[in-house]
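Tokens for chain A. Residues wanted.
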């Protein structure tokens, strides 16, 4: 008999979580104005709001906390992290930041100007926010298959080459600072980008003289999918695949709170010295000195170790496998999800789950609220709220996908928790015909509203 799968780690410490009653949760979500970001964490039983900074660190990462060098300039922890990043990615110039959006802020301050166009594959919320804050425009060039959750396509994160070349043809070169590839592509459901697509984008950008940048919050998960799904990579190690991925880029920004398995941190890695030199000035202005960038030495040490662990196959098989475990459970119950399952989260398709609730009533946020009331589970809306308003017309933007994301923290929950989540969603799905009305906004911020928005029942 073949041995069953077992996680490649054992548990040393536990954190208690507390169940609540449905009556308590009804009162709490009303007080939070139907915004799950406003709930305190002690009110959550299973927290799938994000996989950012919520992972469990290893014993070796905890050991790095004791080895942290807190020198303001030139700490040994900085050089430990820089060497790890350079060895993994092959990019020689490195700047630490306190998290991913800080890396975007620093690098985009150098590269993105008013009137620019930034093509890519479904830019995430903070990325689009930083672009639009500078009065530039993000242009989505994702393949069409990404927007049909029933289609089986191994690399739904891919850029459509015809769409990308059309942008290049109609836009002056000087107005395109770079093409951005997000790996994996969060907004389309945690979907991977193939190595073939990265090569093709690089080749086309070379033809038009356009720079290529990566958003690499989940680059290791992307490398895992390449190994499992793309011909010719099945016998390569994750680290070998990662090294090749970065041959086709001029630089990258990372939220290291994801595939760095760290609680805090981010960075910029670059091939061009001139851009690095300019970025150093903004790093000092916004983040701190260039050898700590808003991070403590102990956090840089923990991140250095986390990057090494995140690019090991056994870890990734366990991590991505747990996401798929939840996806299979939900599919068995008939709950409509984005397929194939993503690397870090399961995404519920609200256009199929609650087809009677229009996007103008924020169905993905509505399901997030219902899931909290049902079982104390916190997810996050990836839909009309997150899509925000058009910066010119101030009208709602209605995305092609209206999703509820269930982002699974790394090495935190057991499969029993996944079973609990699956049954909670099944219960709501079974009574979906009883859900007649959505939500209305009572207050919102002018940009990236979903973090602080206030709502009421429609």
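Reply:
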């Amino acid at each position: 008999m073949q041995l069953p799968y077992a996680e490649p780690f054992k548990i040393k410490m536990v954190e208690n979580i507390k169940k609540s009653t449905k009556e308590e949760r009804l009162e709490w979500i009303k007080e939070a104005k139907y915004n799950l970001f406003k709930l305190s964490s002690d009110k959550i039983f299973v927290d799938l709001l994000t996989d950012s900074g919520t992972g469990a660190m290893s014993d070796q990462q905890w050991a790095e906390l004791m080895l942290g060098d807190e020198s303001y300039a030139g700490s040994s922890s900085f050089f430990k992290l820089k060497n790890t990043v350079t060895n993994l990615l092959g990019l020689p110039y490195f700047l630490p930041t306190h998290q991913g959006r800080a890396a975007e802020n620093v690098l985009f301050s150098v590269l993105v100007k008013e009137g620019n166009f930034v093509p890519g594959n479904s830019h995430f919320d903070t990325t689009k926010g930083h672009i639009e804050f500078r009065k530039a425009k993000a242009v989505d060039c994702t393949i069409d298959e990404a927007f049909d959750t029933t289609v089986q396509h191994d690399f739904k994160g891919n850029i459509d080459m015809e769409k990308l070349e059309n942008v290049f043809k109609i836009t002056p070169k000087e107005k395109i600072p770079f093409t951005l590839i997000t790996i994996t592509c969060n907004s389309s459901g945690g979907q991977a980008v193939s190595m073939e697509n990265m090569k093709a984008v690089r080749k086309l950008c070379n033809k038009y003289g356009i720079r290529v940048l990566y958003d690499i919050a989940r680059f290791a998960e992307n490398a895992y999918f390449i190994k499992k799904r793309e011909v010719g990579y099945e016998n390569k190690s994750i680290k070998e695949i990662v090294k090749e991925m970065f041959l086709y880029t001029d630089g990258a920004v990372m939220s290291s709170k994801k595939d760095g398995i760290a609680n805090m941190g981010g960075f910029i890695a670059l091939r061009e010295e001139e851009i690095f030199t300019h970025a150093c000035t903004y790093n000092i202005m916004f983040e701190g000195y260039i050898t700590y960038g808003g991070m403590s030495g102990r956090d840089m040490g923990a991140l250095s170790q986390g990057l090494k662990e995140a690019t090991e196959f056994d870890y990734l098989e366990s991590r991505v496998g747990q996401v798929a475990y939840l996806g299979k459970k939900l599919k068995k119950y008939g709950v409509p999800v984005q397929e194939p399952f993503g690397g870090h989260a399961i995404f519920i398709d609200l256009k199929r789950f609650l087809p009677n609730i229009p996007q103008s009533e924020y169905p993905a946020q509505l399901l997030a609220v219902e899931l909290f009331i049902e079982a104390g589970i916190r997810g996050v809306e990836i839909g009309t709220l997150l899509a925000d308003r058009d910066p010119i017309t101030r009208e709602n933007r209605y995305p092609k996908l209206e999703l509820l994301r269930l982002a699974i923290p790394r090495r935190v929950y057991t499969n029993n928790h996944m079973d609990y989540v699956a049954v909670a969603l099944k219960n709501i799905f079974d009574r979906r015909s009883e859900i007649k009305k959505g939500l209305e906004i009572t207050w919102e911020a002018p940009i990236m509203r979903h973090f602080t928005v206030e709502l009421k029942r429609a």
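The mean pLDDT is 96. The first helix runs from residue 22 to 31.
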